[in-house]
Design brief:
About 40% of the residues lie in helices and about 10% in strands. The protein is α/β, with parallel strands linked by helices. It folds into four domains: about 290 residues, Rossmann fold (3-Layer(aba) Sandwich), CATH 3.40.50.970; about 30 residues; about 160 residues, 3-Layer(aba) Sandwich (Rossmann fold); about 130 residues, Rossmann fold (3-Layer(aba) Sandwich). It has a five-stranded parallel β-sheet, sandwiched between helices. Strands 6-7-8-10-9 form a five-stranded parallel β-sheet, sandwiched between helices. The protein is elongated. The N and C termini lie far apart (about 90 Å). Homodimer.
């Protein structure tokens, strides 16, 4: 038995011990894909143990994240994970969680687990590489030329996001983007053919991929990985494996996951011809063999560093720009934006802001899901022509995950845009972005009932609620040009969380009130103070499109009844509800509060802990009619706001 086969067997033995100790895990892929991960990591994956985040390293994504032990084992033998790390599989705060996590282990390029996400993120990583190559590479200096490998299973190709991403990868003809299919014909509930009988070779040919089919062996895999390095365009490799190889469950549905008792484990290890059957013991020569590959890997890394040194001398200005990007030191200043007109929609101001970004910065990329003419999110020159505009097509889920991939491998600012109602399509990728703490920027327009005649399928109700409910997602809903400038400044100069900016289709009133309150608090802005003859005082809170309505209702209350009213715009509700000191400093808690928002988000009820409260929210789907009619029929009209205010103040 040659050294590679011995190492594969040692990996399979260690996988058994790891999963058995944890009393759970996906043994099927850990055993079945061992030949793939052993060959890829030792002989082909261009990484270094000197710098886990080397920018030109090959990227590897385990889209079938449940098969994590298939990569943990080879990472152990290569010295990246200790034996204690393997024993801590699935334990709290370990480097080896059930599914790979970027926060847990620095050699994980993407958190995965939701099937198909890894394929789309891989497309994003390939796009990011090509963007940086276009910006910085020179004929004699290929700073960015790495490959992106995605290992996936049968299940990934049943997720819609995978097909969205595959279509785009084929259309863009992304070089060095390699899909590796662990093709074992089994999934959790059945054989794959019972739910999917697609001829995948013909499918990927139709998607403009290079296609290969091989049986699983280290020799075949090594040969094909060498061959694909010489071809252009994206590649699909179908590798026929056996799920739960060498176990009693080999090739069956039972092989997907599970542990084995002591006697069965010993029998499997004997079948593997391992020298040791005791848990976590193995022949040290396997460890030494896997370590031997670092010499050439680190030599390539050293040569790249020398290339960069020469590049810095020959192209000093580009070198400075690259250094700023890699160190995340690019600052975005919007103080010089001049708007020529007031009282426009916030989507129109978005267009002007993006034009300003295009004229003054280079470190961004993005676009819309075929809605640039509607959301006003897009750039003049396409990515395929060396520009910043990505045409994602009508692929909201893949668009969001692609931007996740870009964020994972660069500090480029990314934009993704669609109608707010269609943010539902992107939910899985939005969740993963927040889980990985990626500073992706989403811009969702057509924010409420006020879009009118497009009808209830396009009129968002629960979407803002959903977005705010995602941990580490910050939702900004500005009401005019001053606030949307603040929103972009906030979004682009932070790096800790995902942002969703909500914009209007309809024109909104521009307010002349001081923006300093918002700049200071980063969450709330005093719009107006109306003093009257009455002894009654009221605070009105609203966001986005409803701020204009709140201000009109306040004027009615003040002029007709002399009620003292203060109106606050709350573009960042999540932040304000957590800032008791700001609420108290601005005396928001001093008088009864009436909050107004055309969503069904109950977050507003948090103000009930401070004072008497009523909230006007959306509770029903809209209708196909003009905007004013739909808005008003759902309670967003001056008469209803006044009535609710009087009831809150106990004025009959």
């Amino acid at each position: 038995m040659n050294k590679d086969k011995l190492l594969v067997s040692a990996m399979q033995g260690l996988a058994l011990d790891t999963i058995n100790k944890a009393k759970g895990g996906h043994s099927g892929m850990a055993l079945g894909a061992a030949e793939i991960t052993e060959t890829l990591f030792t002989k082909h994956l261009n990484i270094t143990n000197l710098n886990p985040k080397w920018v030109n390293r090959d990227k590897f994504l385990l889209s079938a994240g449940h098969g994590s032990v298939s990569i943990y084992t080879i990472m152990h033998y290569m010295g990246l994970l200790t034996l204690d790390d393997m024993k801590n599989y699935r334990n709290l705060n370990s480097k080896t969680p059930a599914h790979p996590e970027t926060d847990a282990f620095e050699y994980v390029d993407a958190s995965t687990g939701s099937l198909g996400q890894g394929i789309a993120m891989g497309v994003g990583m390939a796009i990011a590489r090509d963007f940086l190559a276009n910006k910085f590479n020179k004929p004699d200096f290929k700073l960015f030329d790495h490959s992106v490998y995605v290992l996936h299973g049968d299940g990934c190709l049943q997720e819609g996001i995978a097909h969205e991403a595959i279509q785009l990868a084929g259309t863009l003809q992304l070089d060095k983007f390699v899909l590796i299919h662990d093709f074992n014909k089994i999934q959790l509930d059945s054989e794959v053919k019972m739910v999917n009988n697609t001829d995948l070779m013909k499918y990927f040919e139709a998607m403009n991929f290079n296609v290969f089919r091989i049986d699983s062996s280290t020799e075949n895999i090594d040969k094909i990985f060498n061959e694909i390095k010489q071809i252009n365009g994206p590649t699909y490799i179908q590798i026929h494996t056996k799920i739960a190889q060498h176990t009693p469950n080999e090739g069956t549905v039972k092989g997907h996951s599970g542990v084995f008792d002591e006697q069965t484990t010993i029998e499997i290890k004997n079948k593997l011809k391992l020298d040791f059957t005791e848990p976590f013991k193995y022949d040290i020569s396997n460890y030494e063999y896997a370590q031997s590959f670092w010499k050439n890997k680190n030599l390539r890394y050293g040569n790249w560093n020398k290339l960069v040194e020469n590049y810095n001398t020959k192209y000093p200005e580009l070198s400075i720009e690259l250094d700023k990007l890699l160190k995340n030191k690019i600052q975005y200043d919007f103080s010089k934006i001049n708007y020529t007109k007031a009282n426009l929609s916030t989507r129109e101001y978005t267009k002007q802001i993006l034009n300003f970004i295009e004229q003054n910065y280079w470190s961004y990329i993005g676009g819309s899901a075929d809605l640039t003419s509607s959301t006003n999110v897009g750039f003049q020159k396409d990515f395929t022509l060396g520009g910043h505009n990505l045409r994602y097509g009508i692929r909201e889920h893949a668009m969001t995950a692609i931007n996740n991939g870009i964020n994972l491998t660069t500090n480029l600012k990314t934009f993704a845009s669609t109608f707010l109602a269609f943010s539902d399509y992107a939910k899985g990728a939005l969740r993963m972005a927040s889980l990985m703490k990626l500073p992706a920027i989403n811009i969702y327009s057509h924010d409420s009932y006020a879009i009118g005649s497009d009808g209830p399928s396009h009129q968002p109700i629960e979407q803002i609620t959903m977005l705010r409910a995602i941990p580490n997602m910050k939702v900004l809903r500005p009401c005019d040009e001053n606030e949307i400038t603040w929103a972009f400044n906030y979004a682009m100069n932070q790096n800790d969380h995902q942002i969703s900016i909500i914009t209007s289709r309809q024109n909104l009133e521009s307010f002349s009130s001081d923006i300093n309150t918002l700049n200071t608090t980063n969450c709330v802005r005093l719009i107006n103070t109306l003093k009257g003859r009455s002894t009654h005082f009221l605070t009105l809170l609203a966001s986005g499109s409803e701020v204009m309505l709140a201000n009109k209702a306040a004027k009615k209350l003040n002029s007709d009844l002399g009620i003292n009213v203060r109106i606050f715009s709350v573009p960042f509700l999540q932040e304000l509800t957590e800032k008791r000191e700001i609420i108290q400093k601005l005396s928001i808690d001093k008088y009864p509060i009436l909050a107004i928002e055309a969503s069904n988000d109950c977050t507003w009820y948090k103000f009930a802990q401070y004072t008497e409260l009523d909230v006007v929210l959306a509770s029903n789907f809209g209708a196909s009619a003009d905007a004013k009619t739909v808005y008003e029929m759902n309670g967003f009209n001056i008469q209803n706001i006044v009535s609710r205010a009087l009831k809150l103040l106990k004025i009959s």
